[in-house]
């Protein structure tokens, strides 16, 4: 019986950085380890506390140090792989969680006959870039043995933008940990903190960025309140940037201060409780074409579904792969506040349907979207 190939996963982001790429990295790494594949993980050094936490993982985690990281990333990543080889570690496959990580290591991997797999998530390949950076993107992805795209939308954009052989680009959705995100009834502390008792709670948990569509939910809220007067909109995400001030002003102009709460940043330990306190999760993401700013997938839809919550998302980018329209939630025109209001009113007025969507969403995750399920498909593709 042939031995399992050894794998090195290289990710700039890794918990305690719990962004989408960090979640992808730890979810896949833990599944690879559980499946018995030899694994090493490389990640950017953050601080001593993060290093201590990362070193508790049941596989070797190696921190890559470097100042002015963005400027000298390719040098640091090349040096890190060179040191790996010097230590006698000879991976059969390197998985880079972004093309930026992969750019500096394509030649040394080819020289050592190591297969390179690059994961593309969305924005990092769709955003508007200078000509030179676009050229780097094309060269890097074409140098890979396989490219993993987290949505069909991202896959199509990569093929179109990089003139890459379509057979090398594989769609593989994001996953979610159903033991971390699950239905729970005790959310009293959040109800008391934000005065949510007897309220119908609408939640968006995401960075405060224009493409996420908070403004369209706020625009829809007066219509929602006419039918659901106890509706309350929780906006959860770090309170910084000009867009936050724009949203604050919009809430004030529409006299919605008593119906909208900005909670600020939510710690990873509290995420499950926030999803569970809501009745409907919404993020009507839209594409900002001039910036190339899009939603590559929308992992928060899976997280909310895992908590048995119905979801509403914008019909744009890769969101269609995250939501099973009419079964786990609804897709809406992200620019149409009337349609957004209509779907919110319908779900908030029909809690049995919202519950059904939520249960179907969790079952879909347990069947196809756990990290083990995603990783099995990944390894079947690349190993």
TrEMBL record:
Q: Name one GO molecular function term.
A: glycosyltransferase activity
Annotated Glycosyl transferase family domain ranges read 191-364
InterPro entries in the cross-refs? Glyco_trans_1, Glyco_trans_4-like_N, Glycosyltransferase_grp1
Gene3D superfamilies cross-referenced by the UniProt entry = Glycogen Phosphorylase B
Q: Can you give the residue ranges of the Glycosyltransferase subfamily 4-like N-terminal domain?
A: 18-180
Q: Which Pfam families match?
A: Glyco_transf_4, Glycos_transf_1
Query: What's the protein name?
Result: Uncharacterized protein
Taxonomy of origin reads: Bacteria, Pseudomonadati, Chlorobiota, Chlorobiia, Chlorobiales
């Amino acid at each position: 019986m042939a031995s399992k190939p050894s794998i090195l996963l290289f990710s700039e982001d890794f918990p305690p950085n719990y962004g989408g790429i960090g979640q992808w990295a730890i979810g896949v790494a833990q599944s690879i380890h559980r499946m018995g594949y030899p694994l090493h993980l490389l990640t950017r050094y953050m601080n001593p506390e993060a290093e201590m936490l990362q070193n508790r993982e049941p596989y070797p985690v190696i921190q890559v140090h470097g100042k002015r990281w963005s400027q000298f990333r390719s040098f640091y990543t090349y040096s890190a792989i060179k040191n790996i080889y010097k230590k006698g570690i000879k991976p059969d496959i390197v998985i880079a969680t972004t093309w930026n990580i992969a750019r500096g290591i394509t030649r040394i991997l080819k020289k050592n006959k190591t297969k390179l797999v690059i994961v593309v998530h969305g924005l990092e390949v769709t955003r508007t870039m200078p000509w030179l950076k676009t050229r780097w993107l094309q060269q890097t992805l074409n140098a890979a043995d396989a490219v993993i795209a987290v949505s069909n939308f991202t896959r199509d954009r990569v093929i179109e933008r990089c003139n890459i052989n379509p057979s090398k680009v594989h769609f593989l959705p994001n996953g979610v940990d159903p033991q971390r995100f699950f239905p729970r009834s005790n959310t009293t502390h959040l109800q008391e903190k934000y005065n949510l008792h007897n309220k119908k709670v609408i939640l968006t948990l995401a960075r405060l960025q224009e493409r996420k569509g908070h403004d369209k939910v706020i625009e829809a809220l007066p219509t929602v309140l006419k039918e659901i007067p106890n509706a309350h909109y929780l906006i959860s995400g770090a309170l910084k940037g000009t867009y936050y001030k724009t949203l604050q002003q919009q809430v004030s102009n529409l006299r919605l201060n008593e119906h909208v709460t900005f909670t600020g940043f939510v710690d990873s330990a509290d995420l499950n409780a926030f999803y569970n306190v809501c009745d409907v999760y919404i993020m009507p993401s839209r594409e900002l074409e001039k910036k190339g700013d899009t939603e590559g997938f929308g992992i928060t839809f899976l997280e909310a579904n895992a908590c048995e919550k119905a979801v509403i998302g914008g019909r744009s980018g890769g969101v269609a792969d995250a939501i099973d329209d009419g079964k786990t939630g609804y897709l809406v025109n992200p620019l149409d506040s009337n349609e957004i209001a209509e779907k919110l009113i319908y779900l908030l007025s029909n809690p049995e349907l919202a519950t059904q969507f939520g249960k179907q969403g969790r079952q879909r995750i347990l069947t196809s979207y756990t990290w083990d399920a995603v990783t099995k498909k990944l390894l079947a593709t690349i190993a």
